Amino acid sequence: MEYQLRIYTVRPGEMEEWLEEWRRHVLPLRRKFGFAVTGPWVIEAEDRFVWILGYEGEQGWAAADAAYYESEERKSLRPDPARHLSRVETSPMRSP
After folding, report:
1. CA atoms 90, 34, 15, 12: torsion sign
2. CATH dotted code for 2-86
3. Residue range 7-12: average pLDDT?
4. What distance in Å separates the CA atoms of residue 57 and residue 48, rounded to the nearest whole number?
5. Of 34, 55, 66, 75, which is most buried by a Cβ count within 10 Å?
6. Average pLDDT, the chain
């Protein structure tokens, strides 16, 4: 299984709207594309949203992630939930 830590800085005052759209759209679509989702966690004082994505498919992380972003389902999310984010940090992880 490949993992990625994702830390998003959410625009001030938009956390609840971001969470609603993430739960309603992003989470189920990621799962549909074969990703395992751990989290989410919110760091309130810093307007941060943290989650871990996992993928264990034959095509590998890069191809699965590209398929997710290139899908009509993801492209059709209007308005785009990412509008709530001012910064996105991603880090690949592995078990030692």
Report:
1. positive
2. 3.30.70.100
3. 98
4. 29
5. 55
6. 95
How many Å apart are CA 40 and CA 51, to the nearest integer? 5
Using one digit for the tens of pLDDT, what is the confidence trace for 17-45? 999 999 999 999 999 999 999 999 999 99
Q: What is the mean pLDDT of residues 80-93?
A: 96
Q: Where are the domains of the chain?
A: 2-86
Of the candidates 21, 65, 22, 55, which has an alpha carbon nearest to the alpha carbon of residue 40? 22
CB-CB contact of 18 with 63 (8 Å):
no
- CA distance linking residue 27 with residue 39, whole number of Å: 10
Peptide bond into 28 cis (omega under 30): no
